[in-house]
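Reading a protein record of the kind used here takes only a little practice. The integers have meaning only within a learned vocabulary of local backbone shapes. With that in mind, consider the following protein and its fold in token form:
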Amino acid sequence: MDIKHELDSMRYLEFAIRSKNRQLEELKELKTSIRSPVITGMPKCQSFESRDKLEELLDKICKLEREKADEIEELVDKKAYWSEQFRGLDTEESTVMEMRYFESMKWFEIADELNYGNTAIHNIHRRALANLKKLINS
């Protein structure tokens, strides 16, 4: 198992979920702009066309919501697993790992928050990865 790849996959899942949230907001805004069919002197084909567009849009929204729900479930499972693994690390290592992979913080943000230099944060991260590998393989 490539630990770093597995940990990075959580960050990318979070990005994917955020992206789906933005897409859903856009689709929901479009939904309100589609006019419902008007039963007046308008030709029926235009009313049906409007209804078809609305149905298509609702299908897209449902599909995106299902995908997002699946990704959220996967992310929750991964975070639970890695949270358990991080308990085997010392406090400094687990803090850096949680900030990086659970909060998706950038390296310089972690360094700034913990009042360390970038090199120290990278060294702690490297040490944490090595310790995780030992914990998982034992």
Summary: The helical segments are 3-33, 44-86, 91-101, 107-114, 118-137. The chain has a mean pLDDT of 88. The chain has five helices and no strands. The radius of gyration is 23 Å.
